[in-house]
Sequence to fold (129 residues):
Amino acid sequence: MKLIIGIVRPEKFPDVREALWKEQVHMMTVVDVRGCGQQKGYLEEYRGVIEEVTLHRKVMLLIAVNESYVKKTVDAICGGARSNGGKIGDGKIFVLPLEDCMRIRTGENGVSAIGGESKEASAAKERKK
Ligand SMILES: Nc1ncnc2c1ncn2[C@@H]1O[C@H](COP(=O)(O)OP(=O)(O)OP(=O)(O)O)[C@@H](O)[C@H]1O
Ligand SMILES: [Mg+2]
Fold:
């Protein structure tokens, strides 16, 4: 299991979400954040005072996936977030090992808790067959 953290431009978030949905990735946590990359800051004048702006508005996505979803999730974020030809500030993607995950409702954990279907739901489906 991996935890994928994507940090993207806010205006690109709708494209990123659509690309993820196309890959059946619907489960995500989205946070408005501010951050700074390798360009550090820039100077901006506000009410006659020149200030250094070091933090830009970004959207952070947290997506926990099973191994088989890692590549398609990363590719979808990248595809949706990249500006024409790629521009400074387009964002970053971090892939972290994920030790465990628990679905609180059922108490199930690990690989079966992470995905779209609980053990209970798939067992019910099996029974119907
Ligand atoms: N090393 C890092 N650690 C934590 N957050 C980071 C790091 N690098 C980038 N970020 C986050 O990602 C956002 C977007 O980064 P950004 O795309 O500017 O990366 P970059 O390394 O500066 O690449 P580029 O040169 O293409 O701009 C930053 O505003 C920050 O929130
Ligand atoms: Mg940058």
Remarks:
- The mean pLDDT is 91.
- The CA atoms of residues 1 and 66 lie 5 Å apart.
